[in-house]
Amino acid sequence: MSAILEATGLVKHFAMGSGLFARAAGVVKAVDGVSFAVGAGESHAIVGESGCGKSTVARLVLRLIEPTAGAVRLEGRDLLALAPAELRAARRHIQIVFQDPYGSLNPRMTVGQMLTEPLMLHEVVAPARRHERVAELLRVVGLQPDSAQRYPHEFSGGQRQRLAVARALAAEPRVIVCDEPVSALDVSIQAQILNLLADLQQRLGLAYVIISHDLAVVHHIATSVGVMYLGRFVESGPSDAVFERPKHPYTQALLSSVPVPEPGRRSRRIVLQGDVPSPLAPPSGCHFHPRCAHAIARCREEAPLAEAKADGGTVACHRWRELEAWNTAVTAGQGNRAALARLQAAFTRPFLPGESPPAVSVA
Ligand SMILES: Nc1ncnc2c1ncn2[C@@H]1O[C@H](COP(=O)(O)OP(=O)(O)O)[C@@H](O)[C@H]1O
Ligand code: SF4
Ligand SMILES: [Mg+2]
Hints:
By secondary structure, the chain is of the alpha/beta class. Helices cover 35% and strands 20% of the residues. It has twelve helices and twelve strands. The longest helix is centred in the C-terminal third of the chain and has 29 residues, at 320-348.
């Protein structure tokens, strides 16, 4: 994959307090070494509980704030090295959709004015064609062309999020960062917006960075995932590896709280104790240790490094291999039961003509 957007070793520390007490108040390590890449037509999801640093990553990637360390490359160009004029030009290619469709749209502008603004700023189409392009943008996000004369308050939450998507699309970006794009919407509307994003991605080859505290939201759209905890990715990699074969206890806990739609598949729910600790005073060693059911003395003393997994991606846990071996032993037991169920099913219905008996191996 050639990456359109690449973030490498992003760090953002916020100094807390001011004046005399600045030093005493300490530093919030909101983002503490985050790397990922996303190509055309792909979505990188960043998941984790509230306060773990997701929105700070979004702001860093757009260069709305300056990083303490790290690099952001857009189509190979270092965004952080660009002069203001070049940065303005590059911004055309990376747009954002925020969580709150109420706060993020200017209430004093008509929809038409709001969509014309990026067309003018980036000289996307000739002035004579702007009117037509606004109608096109509205159509693409499933709204009536006559919406252009109306104000944001005349629309529902879901429609406003469609307007926010239309505004992001106006600049003809390569990348859209979606920060909790459906969290403020009714569940019934969430799927419509996610389907719209998926459809636009397919038609336009967009790259997405999709940020959410809700794994169910990103499950279907993500090609790769970073699971964030207190400023770091504790696990990352291709979506199917992270979602189907999670290795980190935190990922396993997050996933166990997502409903399993497949009949007959029961998941063991892991209840996460307590809240995310303050990033102002993160726990020693592995940041997750106070909430981890598998923590041992080493976890309190030594921060785990990210290690490569066989199926791609990384995991940062001292005990992941040991826990994996244990989980494999448990699922092998379930495998026996599945083989037995197939065998029983084979004997409860006659074989169809030409059908051979199922191969059943009991490992
Ligand atoms: N401008 C800022 N100054 C100080 N602390 C900040 C600032 N922005 C974010 N933080 C802190 O950084 C941490 C991560 O915040 P954020 O990126 O908004 O998390 P998330 O989006 O995952 O909920 C939080 O503890 C938050 O209070
Ligand atoms: S390093 Fe220790 S505390 Fe951290 S996730 Fe692994 S087992 Fe749990
Ligand atoms: Mg946020």
